[in-house]
Amino acid sequence: MTKALNEALERLSLTQRQAVEWEEGAALVLAGPGVGKTTVLTARIARILESSRNRNFRILALTFTTKAGDEMRSRVDELVPGLSERTVIGTFHAFCAQVLRQHGSHLGIKPDFAVYDQDSDREELLKDALRAAAEKGQSVSSDEVRWLRTIDRLRSNLVSPAKTAGHFRDEEMGLRASLVYSIYEEALRARNIMDFNGLILDTCRLAHQMPAVAARIRQSYPYWMIDEFQDTSPAQFRLVRFLAGDDFRNVFAVADDDQIIYQWAGASYRQIVAFRDRFKPELFQLVENRRCPPAVVQIANNLIAFNSDRTPGKAPLLATKPDDGPAIHFRTYGTEADEATGIAAEIAEAGLKTWPHTAVLGRTRAILTPVVEALRTAGVKAAIVTRRDRFISPQFVWLQACLDQGLRPTDRQVFIAMTNAANLIAGIELDASLLEAEAEGAGHSLLEHWAHAASGLGNDIAGKLAQFAYRLVQTRSSWRSLVAEALVWLPETAASSEGVESDAADDKAAWEIATRAIRAEKGGDPDLAELLQGIALRPKEPPPDPDSVRLFTIHSAKGLEFEQVWVMGMAETVLPSWQSLQPKASPAELEEERRNCFVAITRTKRTLTLTRAEKYRGWVKKPSRFLEEMKLPEEIQR
Questions:
Q1: Residue 106 falls within a domain, yes or no?
Q2: Could you tell me if 412 and 516 lie in one domain?
Q3: pLDDT for the residue 496
Q4: What are φ and ψ of residue 497, in 5° steps?
Q5: How confident is the model at residue 126 (pLDDT cuts 50, 70, 90)?
Q6: Are both 49 and 95 inside the same structural domain?
Q7: Which of 406, 288, 379 is nearest to 36 (CA)?
Q8: Which of 314, 353, 394, 467 pairs as cysteine with 424 (C-beta 3.0–4.6 A)?
Q9: Contacts of 502 (CB under 8 A, 6+ apart)
């Protein structure tokens, strides 16, 4: 056993150690905030790898975010260096992409499929398909792209086009939805494109229609771990069931029913109940909170006890940190503008050294915007942290699209994106539609014809872009060296454009982070299709400024921790939200708002400051009911 693993095991509590040493069969670990769930998962993976050094099986660990997967992989590698190559650690979508690359041919899916991660791309795909269907005499129009949201809901619930009509009360509407859905699926398959829902849906289809594939996965991965199980959608849980078959039970799930805050995406307490019914797991509960001060643990326990959708008999969190003095503060302001300036003033006064360790949390992005402006006015570096799903500089939009075009030479949408981005980079005006028509007449590929047109403009930057495209067309196998060179010269093309230079630098950092993670995930260099699929599935935001205060929506802050946490907007109709307080709202909506508050207050390691304004947008707001439910001491509320 490695020294690092031995030391990690010695630091575990009794319950953590029991979970880590669990051998065969299903297990459910109820893990509240700050109790070391990632420590348990990584120690268990490392222990199994260490005890089976001479065996060839791999461990499958499914996470909810790419960041969680990257962190888990890194920790495993620290505990048992060199053995993390025997793991597949990543999101459900990344794992499904891998399965479909290897076995998708059974469904007619080619391994070099593209992943459309943007709604705008999918909408254009459906519009094109509807236009083509109308030209062939089908009674459809491009306006029916509005059905895409409905199609997404059907796909997320694993409903096929053939069964769509049965999900509508109005027969004619159901038949219409079924037709548009069929056209969309045919367009995806014809162009070898997957969308996010399709990755899950088609892997479910594969496991259901080809039991031998599911059996092979069980043989290759005899141990499965699932992180943040409470955040899984019904489709993701059905995927687990389909892959497990009737007899496989080595599923180790970590969940917390008090942190279900993605109900709108299908997450539900029912998934945890269904897991217990289906797999009959051994139950472990981790309660020793090692993150928060005792006073915060107490108010968190008080608050969440008001929810009913929880595991019966669940024990409260237990504080393990010493009481180092006042940890909870409360502020009341006159208006939301006063709240913003008040928060900013206190953070500014605390000093530069505290800023990187300070977070401001709000229910929505809108409530955070005045605070980030007030912080900057006070001379404090600050930014609202949000997930970025695409590159924002034309340089890296072009690079991604050009590589995509090299892989899929007939993809019209990618060609349009590439041409438009090149126009912005070089200050040229090439028309994608015109080039497309000319390429067809000349018998050229779209990328080759674009390169020919760009190289003849007498524009130095356009010439460099064209040279990259020419070389990609002529020797696609050299794409790695082409990309390595482009990462040097491409950002330099933004130097003369105000604002774009920093965007390109941010995108370069995001590209390099993504490619390193993809390489680590694969355990070697990816091919071009794997790289592009991985980039499509990963966030594109750069690393945060190390000297800045970060502001998050509560959803964005889940899984994070900070020395000082401010939770603002503690008022009725703000937190809890207006929607959850309406007469027709279900009790589950208010419970989800309470879980949001629970997640927010348990992000802190040292101090928690709760704030509210008496008026928002001119309307008087009562204090949030959650303040009373927390049972804050009276001296704090004064």
A1: no
A2: yes
A3: 64
A4: -110, 120
A5: very high
A6: yes
A7: 288
A8: 394
A9: none
pLDDT category at 497 given cuts 50, 70, 90 is low
Backbone angles phi, psi at 430, to 5 degrees: -90, 140
3-state secondary structure of 266: coil
For 143-189, list the strands marked E by DSSP.
Answer: none
Close Cβ partners of 475 (under 8 Å, ≥ 6 residues apart): none
With beta carbons less than 8 A apart as the criterion, state whether 586 and 632 touch. no
Average pLDDT for the chain? 94
pLDDT, tens only, 557-594:
999 999 999 999 999 999 999 999 999 999 999 999 99
Question: Residue 577 gets which letter from DSSP?
Answer: B
The predicted structure's pLDDT at residue 499: 62
The Cα 103–Cα 241 span in angstroms is 18
33 annotated as ligand-binding: yes
Q: Is residue 618 a known part of a binding site?
A: no
Nearest to 251, CA basis, from 290, 278, 289: 278
Q: Please give the Cα distance from 91 to 104 (Å, whole number).
A: 18
**264 contact partners, CB below 8 Å, separation of at least 6:** none
8 labeled binding residue: no
User: pLDDT tens for residues 278-300?
Assistant: 999 999 999 999 999 999 999 99
398 touches 422 (CB < 8 A)? yes
Q: Same domain for 206 and 279?
A: yes
Q: Does 35 carry a binding-site annotation?
A: yes
| Exposed/middle/buried for residue 385 (C-beta within 10 Å: 0-12, 13-18, 19+) | middle
90 lies in the same domain as 230: yes
Rounded CA-CA distance 53/57 in Å is: 10
519 and 430 assigned to the same domain: yes
> What are the Cα distances from residue 259, in Å, to 263, 268, 603?
10, 10, 12
Are residues 423 and 522 located together in one domain of the fold?
yes
* Residues 530, 591 share a domain: no
> d(Cα 344, Cα 638) in Å, to the nearest integer?
21
38 annotated among ligand-binding-site residues: yes
Beta strands in 378-441 (DSSP E): 382-384
* Cβ–Cβ under 8 Å, residues 562 and 358: yes
Listing DSSP states for 64-87 in one string gives SSHHHHHHHHHHHHHHSTT-GGGE
Cβ neighbours around 205 below 10 Å, total: 17
Query: Which residues are within 8 A (CB) of 358 and not within 5 positions of it... i.e. 6 or more apart?
Result: 347, 350, 549, 550, 562, 563, 564, 565, 566
Domain annotation covers residue 567: yes
Q: What is the mean pLDDT of residues 215-228?
A: 97
Distance of alpha carbon 320 from alpha carbon 129, whole angstroms:
59
CATH code for position 328: 3.40.50.300
What per-residue confidence (pLDDT) applies to 386? 86
Count: domains in the chain: 4
Radius of gyration of the chain (CA): 26
Query: Judging by DSSP bridges, how do beta strands 604-616 and 619-620 pair with one another?
Result: antiparallel
Q: Is residue 274 part of a domain?
A: yes
Looking at the fold, whether 398 and 525 belong to one and the same domain comes out as yes
Where is the domain boundary, 537, 571, 595? 537
Instruction: Dig out the tokens for 166 from the structure.
Output: 């049965």
Flag whether 65 is marked binding: no
Which pair of tokens denotes residue 469? 């495209």
Domain hosting 626: range is: 294-385+545-637
